[in-house]
Amino acid sequence: MTSFCTATYRAFDEKADFHKKATGIAVGLTVGSWTELPEAKKKDMEKHLGQVVSVDVHEPEAGAAPGSLAAERYADIKIAYPDVNFSRDIPALLVTAFGKLSMDGRIRLLDLDVSDGFRKTCPGPKFGIHGVQELLGVHDRPLLMSIFKSVVGYELPELKEQFYQQALGGVDLIKDDEILFENPLTPIEKRVEACMAAARDASKQTGQKLLYAANVTGRTSQLRAQAKKAIDAGANALLFNVLAYGFDALQELAEDPDINVPIAAHPAFSGAMYPPRHYGVAPQLLLGKLMRLAGADLVLFPSPYGSVVMPKDETLAIAESLTRHEGALKPSFPVPSAGIHPGLVPLLLEDFGVRSVVNAGGGIHGHPMGTAAGGQAFRQAIDAALQGVELEAYAAEPGREQLKAAIELWGVKK
Ligand SMILES: CSCCC(=O)C(=O)COP(=O)(O)O
């Protein structure tokens, strides 16, 4: 029986015949041409021919606000591509469904539904949400992640101290800044040794477990060796700039039995791939479904209310893609990020729930009482939000001056 991977597109045009366009895509991206084929050849080629599943045309709505989607003429087009046409890997799927087509006018890839056969070749996250929670022994609250800041040009003792201060704040994970590449001052194995020693020291004070996601960088051919080097030095998680390398590079790392630690996917470069509305790839596919299929245990993406923002419906769609039930495919942790401070925690919890990660760099290091207090302020904000208590009221109690100071600086967003 023929199996298919199905792509959903949104094509924009003031006057095009969208049915004709859909047929052009289905034929053009598979067998090339159809009507010109001799009948005998058609029989052989039929199993390779793309199928138009549906074409939903949207005409501009009278009175719609100029510039709004409702004011545009577009069609949502579904095309099914026979699995037999491409090898079972994400690059082949992307080139088939949105290779040349991505450059051909105003068209956006909204979604990809992969066949069961294709899905089987993508084992997904090794740990997933539950696995990461198990490693940390935390199940009843969102996790708190802290981001190294001021790392380029710094020496190991400085990074070690910065790590220690972050860990003292009671964070669950610490991740490298994505711009910290392999470098002579803080090579990955030395950095990991220093930071994990700081983690052990801090744990004596906090009693907490902690994951350190070290940034795996360099040439693609060296990624596995870099990851192994970090793990051998004690790294218990990894960070990876997925989109600069491609999903297959993530999948290679995630599938490797020797890389037995969670992988956090950074969204750097993704903005170039999801321009607004008319072009590119929908964020819930790029940062949601594909990240999960390729094996990310945690996925960072812009939040609706921080410094680098994305519309709320898109961030919720990413989180839904990462967490919805998908048979044996484990869910990945949504990590809405950028410009996050304690005053945003109630909103984060309301929108992304307990099975998410609160992630902050400047919102921790920029705390007026220092980095450790920055982490503590977040933990207090999380406690307050879980109890349904207003942050201002919670912060007014003795022993919560860290949250009080954070609110004085950043405020509380309602
Ligand atoms: C846009 S998601 C990436 C967030 C990130 O990596 C980061 O460094 C955010 O730092 P911030 O100081 O804004 O919390």
TrEMBL record:
Molecular function (Gene Ontology), one example: ribulose-bisphosphate carboxylase activity
Gene Ontology biological-process entries: carbon fixation; L-methionine salvage from methylthioadenosine
EC number from the UniProt entry: 5.3.2.5
Protein keywords: Isomerase, Magnesium, Metal-binding
This protein's record includes keyword Heme: no
Ribulose bisphosphate carboxylase large subunit C-terminal domain location: 128-410
Name of the protein: 2,3-diketo-5-methylthiopentyl-1-phosphate enolase
